[in-house]
Fold EAL domain-containing protein.
Amino acid sequence: RAKEVGRNSYRYYSPAMNRDAQERLALESALSGAIENHQLSIHYQPKVDILSNRISGMEALLRWRHPTLGDVPPQRFIPLAEDTGLIHSIGYWAMRTACAQNRAWQVSGSARLKVAVNLSVRQLVDDRLIDNISAILEETGLEACYLELEITETAVMAEPDKAVQVLKNLQQLGVSVAIDDFGAGYSSLSYLKQFPIRAVKIDQSFVQALPSSHSDSAITKAIISLAHSMECSVIAEGTETRQQFEFLREHACDSVQGFYFSEPMPADKFGKLLRSEENLRLH
Ligand code: C2E
Ligand code: MG
Ligand code: MG
Ligand code: MG
């Protein structure tokens, strides 16, 4: 950064920069107390089978509500949690909460579905990852086959050799893995085929411009056929319109997630959706 600024490097110390740094510090200290102060929660968003329109699973998404800062979006606090190392406690809190919730829904008689939890790059390379996941599954009573981890393409490609090993260990444990934000990063196809992955999530940046953008349509079709050739299922994230949904169905995408069907919602509301008749057919 200092290099970019060049001869005007005095700007580096400007009051504005100072304010940014102070704000970051304040946010960081607030985040470090977020768990014990009960400010975190999980929202759930359905994944919907494209042919039956039935809920086939759900993604767990962290929410942070601070008494004075209000709702802080994950886009803002997840990177901060990664930089500070808080991602470990927050990430395992999210996983434990989502697994316990999924187990509770199953025990109450709702359909048995997979809950997907996002895993950050620092968690992926954490040597205690497998032990911690095993402990969470044991503690919550959730069977491993009902937990899926979403790992971004960028995260697996950060240390691909390590990632291959971790993904194999997860597979052995019975936990499935989906590659998140696929197409947004750079993948080496030779690595990709070594990864034991069950699903690919098409990045929402491609889905948004469907079907009018020729290049995004072409990329989407290519990702679907690539995933199917690796025996992975494909889900399109950020599906908002009927046109997008129909394009995806016509091109054999397996499922969709997005505002077209439902926004992420609090656990009690999602539980009602699972129990309700609507679950049989959302549209
Ligand atoms: P992601 O895993 O790619 O999650 C999808 C994001 O798209 C979510 O944003 C979701 O609310 C949003 N979304 C869903 N449907 C639509 C739609 O139709 N249109 C649009 N425009 N957006 C849609 P959210 O909840 O703000 O989360 C943002 C990112 O924060 C996630 O991206 C994920 O990378 C990260 N994140 C969230 N929860 C966790 C967590 O527990 N652990 C970790 N490590 N990261 C998390
Ligand atoms: Mg995700
Ligand atoms: Mg995603
Ligand atoms: Mg994303």
